[in-house]
Design goal:
Helices cover 25% and strands 35% of the residues. It is built from five helices and six strands. The chain is of the alpha+beta class. It has one domain: Roll (ph1033 like fold), CATH 3.10.590.10. It has a six-stranded mixed sheet.
């Protein structure tokens, strides 16, 4: 299993929206960066992703699971990019803020910090476990 972090602007698609999508989940579309897209191509069914609210909140608020691997993104008129489907797994009891993540020396190599503009980034297992602990999981 691999671990990831996917970002969403809560005004466009929030954690509550993801929860409301239910067991069927929903597609994760709109990624228009080649590196983020390549990260999505590497995702496999069952992989776990932190659901991260970007913009003002800047925090990990939930966990989703990949339920359909990379396929063409219907919102891309040029057909260059794809998407995956995800479903909500659990809410993070105590949202983990970007500020708290940056304060943790153990998380210094996290792609969220090093490549802050990417919307889809990998997360090492040790970092995943540490963020889960910070979030009360």
């Amino acid at each position: 299993m691999q671990y990831w972090l996917i970002k969403s602007e809560p005004g466009s698609w929030s954690w509550d929206d993801q929860l409301n999508a239910g067991e069927a989940g929903t597609y994760w579309d709109g990624v228009r960066n080649y590196q983020a897209s390549n990260n999505m191509k590497a995702m496999e069914n069952g992989d776990q992703c932190f659901f991260y609210h970007s913009v003002k909140e800047k925090s990990v608020v939930g966990i989703v699971e990949v339920i359909k691997e990379y396929y063409p993104d219907h919102t891309d008129p040029k057909g260059r990019f794809g998407m995956v489907d995800v479903r909500a797994v659990k809410t993070v009891p105590k949202p983990v803020t970007l500020g708290a993540i940056k304060e943790e020396e153990k998380l210094a190599d996290l792609a969220l910090i090093r490549q802050s503009r990417l919307s889809v980034v990998p997360v090492y297992k040790a970092s995943w476990d540490h963020i889960c602990k910070m979030g009360g999981l």
